[in-house]
Design brief:
4 copies of one chain form a homotetramer.
Chain A (H helix, E strand, L loop, with lengths): L1 H14 L27 E4 L3 H4 L2 H7 L2 H26 L4 E2 L6 H16 L8 E2 L2 H30 L6 E2 L3 E6 L2 E9 L6 E14 L4 E7 L5 E4 L3 E7 L14 H4 L2 E10 L4 E10 L3 E3 L1 E3 L4 E3 L5 E4 L6 E3 L5
Parallel strand pairs in A: 5-13
Antiparallel strand pairs in A: 2-3, 4-6, 5-6, 6-10, 7-8, 7-9, 7-11, 11-12, 14-17, 15-16
Helix pairs in contact in A: 3-6, 4-5, 4-6
Chain lengths: 322, 322, 322, 322
């Protein structure tokens, strides 16, 4: 039956009933996951030089903390080293407060003077005398202010950026739904920050053997927006006559190799900004003939409703209508 | 008649006419207030470890000023203490300007030197000499810059975050409205900042004895958006044939135990960001057979219209049509 | 004919065809302008204590530069004075580098030491000795960092906030429009920054003698959104059968005393944020029987289209269809 | 046939079927490009004084790095010079630590003391003594904090602002599309940052010989929004019976001199803000009778789909249906 379903998309794509081509270009693709479980796209762009592809701000905001702090530390050491060399070249006569003007000791003094200038701590035990070293020091303190503006800004940007990771049900289900079936998954927010106006979108991609390429369709959801995500949200795509999945059976899975891509958008109240998440489900994570267990809340002594997020996605067997 | 109303929601939920399940999961809940008067949800998520639940930025932005400033002070004292210990271990020989190299006095000097380094004030009466103490001081001043970047950023974030508290009418009314009745409440903005494009949404939750669980429905409003909130806004849910409340009487209140959750969204012109408020009304705050008094404005000598916000929610008795 | 028009609004208000009550509460109002030419509302809220009404961030961002800088200067002087008093009380023995320990000279030294600590400049000619003065100085430098975080943040916030002032046509016109008439005004952006996705909304308020109160209606526009505002935009409200103004003549103006409130929203590309403007037109600024002159562009040697903004709102007499 | 097409727009403009006048004012314009390939508008506004036209923040954020850093450097040098003059006027007696009180050497000391104060580095080898110089220094360090707040804020603003440049197909095509033809172009994002919810709008402008002016119309797109831009997006305007281009042939190009203006909007996930791009296509860049080659992806050893962006816009000849 996979052929009929795919035929359906193809026909509808021509007649514009199905909303195909969502930025994927309808190109050839392997059966590999297009969007990883963690939301990263497996798409790579080549053919442009690295300096047109790179986005330094993006990299510095999204790299690991280890990498970021290493860059800050190494940068600090290197810039101090470069200025230390300049002070060393100008000579110890241009510095007041140097005790030993020879060898490593004097270079170390130049180095730490540089650090004291760059951070504007400026103890003054060592201080520049004369035009040359004073000019360099005046420039270095300006550079320190400008450079730390960027790095402390980035640090705060990293610290304040949304770190919410949604929790998804490990499996998506093909569950009975009214008289028909539906594709269902569950999401929850483990974080204590409030998510508001949560929206979901779903795109399904299937392999079309005849055309020897992957095809794509945005599918409709029972609800595509909720006001807030207090506990969990069951996202439901009813497999009705308008669904590209209509007629598909579990036996068609290996051939069609469907990927359900889920995009979720919410407003983070604390940060006053929109956040997006992405994930995907492929065949082995899709359970046919099951339904999610109803959410079980317990009430504590303060009258609060407790929801055990570790039970998200628990399901039980359920007979499909056909 | 509560049964009919609840039956209505249940039926409509199946036929998708009523917009149920707004993120509440349709789970069992006590009769406790779901959203507090101050907008806090009573939902708690358990079953995830604390480090996955915590959102440090959210906590530091939303905690009380007392707590935040205590954290800053204690952190400052502790970090200085730790660095003082390091300088103390390196020894007084590595510091210029120390007068007494023994006992408490030398530790205090190390401590205050640390504070002068961390804040980059760097008087220089005491200053590091030699590789070990200079290196530690160079690192400490870097740490000071990075650390204060986060905390001064948080301080400004806390200072500039929206602090608008909407004022709600103490009671919501079941009032006569055209030929039928309507659920009405009033809101006003006591602050001098301008709120623009105010939107309201309302969710009603009632207890369904038969199913032994709470059910939820988003209800329609006469107006769900106004352009600005100059004086007050009366939010009106007409109890027409599409309302889940149709047919409910005051006698049904204890059994149905309805909670009216109100979500309001506005654009804060000064901060260029959206703000959300939430509140709720439960039975004792809902007055049957009353109407709000018309807003009374007085004109002052400058021609300005004065609105007395303390009169918000004043009402008088009114006969309901049935 | 004013009665018919007002009757129309009143009827439509009841039958919900006209979109009344846009946050004004339908209360009694004087004939004074509700929104000033500069967009300030003449609404004032009373009946709440000042500390619930004030929004410090809003005040500090929107006050004049003179006032803001005065607050910064006076605050700086006062905080330094307070700390100077503390150092003075602790005594000159607790300070190294004091030359004259008596009278004004020592107080001045304490004062400038305080300034050097608060700004973290820390020359160190004067420096704290001993526990008491060192502790105060350590606290003052922390306070300086935190305090300047707020004030330099505010300074940048003020500097970067949108300063676009739209230019409006001095007069609005009742102009011939197809077979009927229309209310028209023009806006332009004199600034070099690009405004995108400009939206306009219009509310008309008229005095209803019978009810002895002002009534309000949001009116429809020929276009309510344009993609960008390169030259000028003529905002047009067609006075068709759905307009509350239908049937009104120039003779009705004094009695109806209409106020046309215009709200404009745009996205400022440079600041990545939405901006709102408001203005209003009252009778003497509304010209009956005129039309705007077509926009005249000149092309310069670089092929650029030059638009003379000083001609915005130029109009000529035009016969109305009735 | 150009006349028919233009007649169509004119008629529809009157009957409001075509969405004309998108902020261009329908004025006379040369055949010059209205929006450059790089998205800059060729519109210039004159007739307002420079101080009402300038937007300092906009200028400082968008100027070249060379210009910005030159302004910072020159500003730093000039401010230090001015303060050096003040210290010089007050005299060397008011400074501790001056060795040579005559000539250039003393002025240089005053100059570098100023730099050390402005940046708050404050070594203290030279330090103010007495009321006059101490007051000026206290004021200068305050000024330094405030001034650097603005410039380091601007620096971070420049560093973090979106730098995405979309890549457009060099040519737009008039391609066969179902039974009719369509205007097509392609866009891709060469940067590694993720663009979400990409929207496109298209405005066509043509010269109307009869009226001797340019006319404008917003045209419909097959899709005007995609969820994300993984590879490339083919933006398609079907030339159906509602298109103002219907009936136009390649022979009409010189006379009609059409300009296709494309506005693209997306949400930049890293920066949590909307970005806008603009470009345009004029006749020589519009190829009649061609179609884009299908996007060719290669799969690398990690299973990633590689898309060669340098092939964007590759096309082959294609016979048009008429």
């Amino acid at each position: 039956m996979v052929k009929e379903a795919i035929q359906y998309i193809r026909e509808n794509y021509r007649t514009r009933k199905v909303d195909a081509d969502p930025g994927f270009g309808l190109g050839q693709m392997s059966g590999a996951r297009f969007i990883g479980k963690d939301g990263r796209s497996n798409a790579q762009r080549v053919g442009v030089p690295i300096w047109e592809r790179i986005d330094i701000f993006h990299s510095l905001i999204n790299m690991s903390w280890t990498k970021f702090l290493t860059i800050v530390m190494v940068g600090y050491l290197v810039v101090n080293f470069l200025f230390a060399c300049i002070y060393w070249l100008i000579g110890a006569d241009a510095m007041a407060g140097i005790e030993q003007v020879e060898g490593f000791s004097w270079f170390a003094d130049a180095y730490f003077f540089s650090a004291q200038t760059l951070t504007t701590v400026g103890y003054g035990r060592i201080s520049p005398v004369g035009f040359a070293s004073s000019s360099v020091a005046a420039f270095e303190s300006l550079l320190g202010l400008l450079g730390f503006a960027v790095f402390t800004g980035l640090l705060y940007g990293r610290f304040s950026k949304p770190n919410s990771k949604l929790i998804y049900s490990p499996s998506a289900l093909i569950a009975p739904y009214r008289e028909i079936t539906a594709f269902m998954l569950q999401v929850a927010n483990p974080k204590m920050n409030e998510l508001i106006e949560i929206e979901a979108m779903m795109i399904v991609s299937m392999f079309d053997k005849k055309q020897n390429k992957r095809i794509y369709a945005t599918v409709s959801l029972e609800r595509d927006k909720i006001l807030f995500l207090s506990f969990s949200w069951t996202i439901v795509h009813p497999i009705d006559e308008n669904s590209p999945l209509v007629g598909l059976t579990v036996a068609d899975m290996p051939e069609a190799d469907p990927e359900f891509m889920v995009i979720i958008k919410a407003f983070d109240e604390t940060r006053s900004q929109h956040i997006f998440w992405r994930t995907s489900y492929k065949y082995p994570e899709i359970v046919w003939g099951a339904k999610f267990l109803p959410m079980s809340l317990t009430i504590n002594e303060k009258g609060q409703s407790l929801y055990d997020i570790s039970k998200l996605g628990s399901y039980t067997e359920a007979k499909l209508p056909y």
